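Reopening this ticket.

The earlier resolution said the output was attached, but the attachment link was broken on my side. Pasting everything inline this time so it's all in one place.
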Amino acid sequence: MAEPHNLTDHHAADRTTDRTTHASSLTGHANNPAGNNELKHETGHEMHEEIQRKTSRETHHAGHSSHSGHCGNGHRRGIAALFDRHDSTVDFEEGDGDALAPKAPTDQQATPGSADGCCHSDGARVVFIGNPNVGKSSLFNAMLGMHAKVMNAPGTTVLLEHGTYRYVPRHGDTAALAQEWDFTDTPGTYSLLPMSPDEEVAVEAATGAKRHPQPDLIVAAIDATNLSRSLYFLAQVLELGRPTVVALTMTDLAAKQGTPVDAARLQRALDGVPVVAVDGRVGEGCDELADAIAGALESGTPMPRGLADRPVAGLTMRQWVRSRSDERFEWAARVLSDVGMGGETGLTLSDRIDKVLLHPVWGIVVFLIVMFAVFQATTTLASPAQDWFDVTVRGWCETGIDWIFGLFGPGATDGWFHSLIVNGLLDGIITVATFIPPMGIMFILLSLLEDCGYLARAAFVMDRAMRALGLDGRAFLPIVVGFGCNLPGLAATRTLPDSRQRVLVGMLIPFASCSARLSVYLVLAYAFFEQYAGLVVFLMYVMSILVILLVGLVLKHTAFRSLAPEPFVMSLPPYQCPRAIALVRTVVGRLWGFLTGASSIIISMILVLWLLEGIPLAGAAGGFGTVEDVHDSAYGAVADAVAPVFKPAGFGDWHASAALITGFVAKEVVVGAMSQSYSIEQSDDESEAQEGQGALGAALRRDFDESSGGHGRAAAVAFLLFVLAYTPCLATVAELRRQFGGKVAAATVGIGLIVAYMLAVIAFQTLRLVL
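Inline output:
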């Protein structure tokens, strides 16, 4: 059987996966389902075969030195051999990986607190590290619960979780022995030789490099179902010379697969390094792990036989990782032998399921079905709950507010303060609340797909389609979800392993035509193209896809030049049943993070909008907060000032610019803003088609014809394209800022406005010749 072409023998030391899929090698198997399966299982036993070769060389010394030199000079993990620098988005400099030489523990601790906002207590610093998909983050969240905070690593867009853990011994004088520890959860990494910004941050946190504080202890999460792969990584972590506690995860799945791993026996094989069996999904083993951490902080942990007791002085991280690959494999082979593992295993249940889910045809069919279900859930299922917040809860609140104001007299509800509370503050709170259902559903579905193991398979299936933009298959899910609602689409970017990909996909999602834009499409389509309204709406979604591809390609060749397509290497975790407790904890935590991070921006901007609408600029306009005609307010003046900008696009009318300004807050209110500017009463029973064919449609046709010089239909198309491409809503901007920072959010808004304006002007100037 042929070796996958992107890895060669002298890179064997870094092919440390028991279940790894190489998407770049699929070309030769595109029409051969069996070939795909053979490739998967061939790479599935690479680690075992390499360890067996190392074990054989321990018994038969002939030839060992030649291979050792070969492996030592060529030790680069798969993709890492292909590039040396990272994208400027995360501001990594060439050669940063070389600067990460391991540091021996010192008594001198870093100063608590830092400029990046990561505050630490005076307690010991504990860093959680491990391969992707081993249950490390579930364990971290199980120990900290809702007390973890998500923030960017210093100088990057890579997300880290921090939290303070209060340890109270279960025996003895608990009050006197209580301690507080600073916990940090890092992105998953397969090696201490990083290949992405996320893995770079994980290594920096474990080694105390750059602006990361020195850790006092490392918790290394290893997967019992992939013990051989995990042991090689564990060897690197142990050789850092810091106190280390091993968290053994997925022991239940290993037992079901017929390869149980006993934590006590593994601890003996590691010469006394503490090993604790844990299950973060249900919180099992957390207390025992805390006890082990306390003991290791007090007494330290031994260095197992066969590993170096400290890094070799003068070596860079890259040189050090390469130099001892043979020794680490030999050590891993001995440990496997000591715990009674080493023979070939048959196909597991996960392997049998993957024959379907990774099939070149059926895999795509299943993926499309799953994506359709996710899309429907975030739109159709969320819609009734959103309406409940927008209508029922708003009605209850308004009734309660009116009753309270009524206590101060019959005229209290007519003043500006009542308008501020109802049309400003309450409107902002309800706007935030309407995003809870789609975000909650999206978080639930993401957690289910992640925990059951399917998300990794979906990434593999769609990898080839996303390579044109320098992305892997996981980027497809957020973009698809974005067509339902951009906000949960942004939430779905958390599944991407590389911070550069998360930023790029996050900047593309606002161009996905969400369902809120549909009402605008329908009204204008029926107002100007009644017989072809369906075709016009369909073409808007086609244009959305084209804009995403166009902007993605431009960004790829400018700001993301180094984000080139890479051989796709990832671990396929075994299938498992998600646990309800862990699911609820994760969903609630993510929802709370969204609400606390985005609500203040949304409510503040809506209050600003209310203020503009409430300031009268004409003598007969009314009092402050009670302006009768919005055109006579400061809001109308802003709309008048903006309107000439859109003259080249054919809709240089204040009604259109006022609707676009309001649409920056939420696209759902664009049609309402148009009706308000024309003083047309909206009916809850009137559909978008009826509005387009009725009084609102007639007013739009009249003003668009006038502002475009008789080319109203061309101006309508230009307006639709502008609505398609410019900022979808304020909540999306707030979420962009929360996840990626203010600069990325501002750049995304700016790119959207530029693209929208260019599309609108080009469309109008072209179509006015034919329409």
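Reporter confirms the inline version is readable. The CA atoms of residues 414 and 426 lie 16 Å apart. Residues 1-121 have pLDDT under 50 and may be disordered.
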